[in-house]
Amino acid sequence: MKKLLIANRGEIARRIIRTAHAMGIATVAIYSDADAASPYVREAGQAIALGATDSRPYLDGDKIIAAAKKSGADAIHPGYGFLSENADFAKAVRKAGLVFVGPPETAMRVMALKDSAKAAMKKAGVPITPGYQGTDQSLVRLQRAAEGVGYPLLIKAVAGGGGKGMRAVHAPAEFQDALMAAQREGQASFGNASVMLEKLIQRPRHVEVQVFADSHGNVVHLFERDCSLQRRHQKVIEEAPAPGLSERLRHTLGVAAATAAHAIGYQGAGTVEFILDLDTVDAEGDPAFYFMEMNTRLQVEHPVTEAITGHDLVEWQLRVARGEMLPANQEALSITGHAVEARLYAEDADGGFLPSTGTLSRLVFGQGEGIRIDTGVETGSVIGLDYDPMIAKVIAWGPDRASAIDRLVGALDGSIVEGLKSNRAFLARLANHAAFRAGEVDTGFIPRHADALAPPAEVPDAALALAALAIVLDTPMSGDGPFARSGFRLNLPEERTVRLWNGSTRFAIGVRAAGGRFRLNGLDTIAELGARRDGSALILDTGGAPITGHVVHGDAAVEVRFAGQTFRLATRAPLKAAQAGPSDGRIIAPMPGRVLTVDVTAGQSVSAGDRLLVLEAMKMEHRIAARAAGVVTAVNVATGDQVADGMLLVEIGAA
């Protein structure tokens, strides 16, 4: 392998390029018009344009193979997503005389559909979840199968992934509507509307095992990751190893995953995903587990496995693709420390996790010991609706789980994302939640703790002290003293008063230098403290445990982050709010998207919670419902329309 074409984009393309260069392999990037200015395009040894974004160029296998031949590449790495699990593409690459960095297409076909994968695993002796995986997809047959499985149950697109084409159903009356939605998403995302049914595990944990196999018959596992922290079936925080697993269960899961890979003649990197049923335990106290699916590619969360094993999984992929044996056998693999990864997305976490779009006017990542940032964007990059809205993966390693979480929270607190909405503050609250720190995780964690994960309403004295000290100490000053560059100074005026607002609540904090420390007036619990800088962090010494925070200065406001919490404080008095008129009847688009269905007409009566229409964004369906009872007075969109963020969709008058 002398020259590698990366058939992907963003952070994974960047990741592969760097590893390939370290191995002495030349690289070729491909890019759509939307990605022309992306960092990975600059970093590749060669780059080839694929054309307009709306032509879905990353899914055009023929065009990608032609680009590989034109560039002189002798291998193609598909990354993850797009064509990475497309057996027809893998076959075409090999037929063209190129190396495909991935498993044989026969193994991909077995695992491509969830129903055939479960059949293969059942034959291999790997436990599977009770359910229906039949080919008869008629409504009558599926309804009958649902009765046999029992409620609650899950409907899953057989070609699905990432939560697309998945619906939980708790009663027979919900089944048909949920089925149609799952089928639509499956068809839109994967070109396959077929579904399967599964028993819904009430308290599941999502635990997956990293496997690797070579062409010489060797198969190993590189231990497990816990991916239970999810919203809408999409992973938010992952960690390795999974907390709270006994060594017996860890070994059993690893053996089951390796058995699954061996049973289908696997080669390369793969992930075997399991569901742990916390309500069903054996005599040893270990939960029952069931095979869920196998991803026949590298996973987004692979960095946490790299962090605890010390092995570069992309390097392993390239070595296996060159026909080499695995770099290590099972006995040589071990776990060192703990790693946690958070997916930083362009989305409104406090508004239903809807995607956000715009230009990253400022992007800075928190740093520190054990921190790794994988990103495909930079300041000035545009986040649109064409691709996944992930900004970065923030990965933290520590000698133990507590220190890894501490480092992750610190990195999130120190990161700055401006120009669009992001889930940064939500991730920090989630990672710092007491129940997560205690390892009490399952896939229902986020909805169950929704209230505690909401933005804090009250501002503690520590946040006010951080804000006041930062404003005073960061005031630009002249001269060549020891704090001239940072603006940090102790020779303050006699006293300076800092005024801050949290909504309509006003705070006035007096700050005065006093013998190398600071006296504060206006706070109930903090009267005197010391302060020092550590990089971008401001550390306060109040006599007890140090308070470490980050203060981000903005237009007429400061944002204070510490201990995973974020507080936005205005530095100017708020304007009096204009008299608000009734707004319940004005239904506006919460994001740009395409109208999939319109369920109401003018003159129709609706109740609170009734579905008005369905929007599709990022290939996910978003149900738009009435907020109050009334009569529809106007419907301003039709099925198939593209709508902009904030567009008036439906108007509802009084009943």
What does this structure look like?
The structure is a single chain. The chain is of the alpha+beta class and 655 residues long. It has six domains: 3-101, Rossmann fold, CATH 3.40.50; 103-128 and 206-335, ATP-grasp fold, B domain (D-amino Acid Aminotransferase, Chain A, domain 1), CATH 3.30.470; 130-199, 2-Layer Sandwich (Dna Ligase, domain 1), CATH 3.30.1490.20; 337-455, D-amino Acid Aminotransferase, Chain A, domain 1 (2-Layer Sandwich); 461-570, Glycoprotein, Type 4 Pilin (2-Layer Sandwich); 586-653, OB fold (Dihydrolipoamide Acetyltransferase, E2P) (Beta Barrel), CATH 2.40.50. The chain is built from 17 helices and 39 strands. It has an eight-stranded antiparallel beta sheet with strand order 14-13-10-11-12-15-22-20, sandwiched between helices. Strands 24-25-26-27-28-29-30-31 form an eight-stranded antiparallel beta sheet, with helices on both faces. Strands 3-2-1-4-5 form a five-stranded parallel beta sheet. Strand 7 (153-161) and strand 8 (164-169) form a beta hairpin. Helix 4 (87-95) runs antiparallel to helix 5 (105-112). The radius of gyration is 27 Å and the shape is globular.
SSE layout:
Layout: E1 3-6, H1 10-22, E2 26-32, H2 39-43, E3 46-51, H3 61-71, E4 75-77, H4 87-95, E5 99-100, H5 105-112, H6 114-124, E6 131-132, H7 139-149, E7 153-161, E8 164-169, H8 172-190, E9 195-199, E10 204-213, E11 219-231, E12 234-240, H9 247-263, E13 268-281, E14 287-295, H10 302-309, H11 313-321, E15 338-345, E16 347-348, E17 354-355, E18 358-359, E19 362-364, E20 371-375, E21 382-383, E22 390-398, H12 401-413, E23 416-418, H13 424-431, H14 434-437, H15 445-448, H16 450-453, H17 461-473, E24 496-502, E25 505-514, E26 517-521, E27 528-534, E28 537-541, E29 547-554, E30 557-562, E31 565-570, E32 586-588, E33 593-598, E34 605-606, E35 611-617, E36 620-625, E37 630-635, E38 642-643, E39 648-653
Parallel strand pairs: 1-2, 1-4, 2-3, 4-5
Antiparallel strand pairs: 6-9, 7-8, 7-9, 10-11, 10-13, 11-12, 12-15, 13-14, 15-22, 16-17, 18-21, 19-23, 20-22, 24-25, 25-26, 26-27, 27-28, 28-29, 29-30, 30-31, 32-39, 33-35, 33-38, 34-37, 35-36, 37-39
Helix pairs in contact: 4-5, 12-13
